[in-house]
Every structure is written in structure tokens, then in C-alpha cells.
Amino acid sequence: MRQAGLPATARCLEVGAGAGSVARMLARICPSGEVTASDIDTRFFEELAAEERITVLCHDVTRDGFPAGSFEVIHARMVLCHLADPARELAAMAEWLAPGGLLLVEDLDLGPADASPHPVMRQGLHVAERTLGGSQGSDLRLGRRLRALVTDAGFTSGGMGVQPVMIGDGGPADEFWRLSFAQLRDFQARDSSPLAGELDAALSLIDHPDFTDLGMHAVSVWARKPGQPTG
Q1: Segment 149-188, tens digit of pLDDT
Q2: How far apart are CA 70 and CA 190, in angstroms?
Q3: Is 60 exceeded by the pLDDT of residue 231?
Q4: How many whole angstroms separate alpha carbon 190 and alpha carbon 227?
Q5: DSSP string covering 90-151, please?
Q6: Sign of torsion, CA 208 214 216 221?
Q7: How far is CA 24 from the centre of its chain?
Q8: Dihedral (Cα; 30, 219, 127, 178), 10-degree rounding
Q9: 6: number of CA atoms within 13 Å, CB side?
């Protein structure tokens, strides 16, 4: 966010605020601005409504809009990969941004899983990918196409960053995959699918003392809406 250059007075929108961590960051980085933290489910960050300069909003990015030019900054992390038409939603975000406004989107690329030397983890990640793709249309490789999608939506190119995300090194990704594998395992088990066992095996491997793997890449892209800022 600092590298992209956020104005201290920016009106910011956090799409898919999750538990509210990025909304808090935006409020700190833009100390004279305002932050709208939106999600289809706000129960995990409702307490932010009590904080100064943060508005909590129940909002579905695929159906609900904002007036044109409402924001100077829009951020979305791990949101576009779960939407049926990310290109359409990026076009909508372009409308919501003021001229010269900044878009920062982040998503994942599960490509490293294909070359994993650990067959159990490789299979578990592929099962997770197929399960999310089949049940809700998620594209866990969208990060690879993220910059092209942003450019095609009419934004001028800003920058791109890629961060490796490890599994088994005790970092935050371990807990992410523990929760994800467990949830997806329960989803498969409801239909007595043998794939539940594949997810169980991957889940147990995370905490094995001899296991470390590159699970995915986290891709960040920032760009601006053409035009000169007003005011």
C-alpha cells in the first residue's frame, strides 16, 4: 500500500473486508481519510463501526454499486478469484473510482502446487482447487492473470508484486490451509466422497516436522484510473 502511494486524505473502499485487518491498515495509512469496509457478511468486523473514520457496510460487489467517483482508493484481497466474472467487477470498480484513483487488488496463484515434490500435499491442493471451482466457480490461479485483467479494465499500469507463500514453516499460511482443508473435507464428507481422505492426508502433513513446501504465490497489482484527480 505504501509503495503504491495512498493519499493521506483518501476516501477508501475495502471490498471483502473479511475480519477487518486491511480496513484498519487503510485507516492508519490515510489518517485524514475515510474507509468503507464492505462484505456480504460483516459479523467478523462489525466492531470497526465504533472506530472513527471507518464505515461498516453489508455489500455484495456483484449486485450492489456506488455512485461514480465515490473513492480515491479501492482495495480487494482474495476476492476476485471467487467471483464468476472478475472482469465485470473490475469495470464496476473503475466506475466507483474518481479520476486518477488507485486500485490495489491481490489474489493467489496455485501454480506452484503442480510441481510440489510432496504427492500428498500436491493432491490435497488440487482437490481443494477442484472443490472450490466446482462448488462456487473459484479460480485459484487468477493471480497469474491479474495484471492483464486490470489493464483490460482500462486502468493504467502501476506495479506488480509477487510473494511466495510457504506451507509447513509455521507461518500464517499454515493456519489458513488447516482451516481450508478442514472445511473442504467436511464439504466432501457430506457426500461420502473419497476426496475427503485426500484432504485429511494433506491436513495432517502440515504439522509434520520434516515438511515444508511452496504452496502458492500471492500476487499484488496496483494501477490508476486514467484522468487527473479533482479537488
Answers
A1: 999 999 997 899 999 999 999 999 999 999 999 999 998 9
A2: 44
A3: no
A4: 52
A5: HHHHHHHEEEEEEEEEEEEE-GGGGG-S-HHHHHHHHHHHHHHHHHH---TTGGGGHHHHHH
A6: positive
A7: 16
A8: -50
A9: 26
Q: pTM for this structure?
A: 0.93
The three cell numbers locating residue 224: 490508476
Q: What is the pLDDT of residues 64-86, one digit of tens each?
A: 999 999 999 999 999 999 999 99
Which triple of cell numbers denotes residue 218? 500471492
The x, y and z cell numbers of residue 182, run together, are 478442514
Burial-class residue 230 by CB neighbours within 10 Å (0-12, 13-18, 19+).
exposed
d(CA 120, CA 207): 13
Q: How many residues does the chain have?
A: 231
**Confidence bin at 27 (pLDDT 50/70/90):** very high
Radius of gyration of the chain (CA): 19
- 141-159 exposure pattern, b = at least 16 Cβ within 10 A, e = fewer: bbbbbbbebbeebebeebe
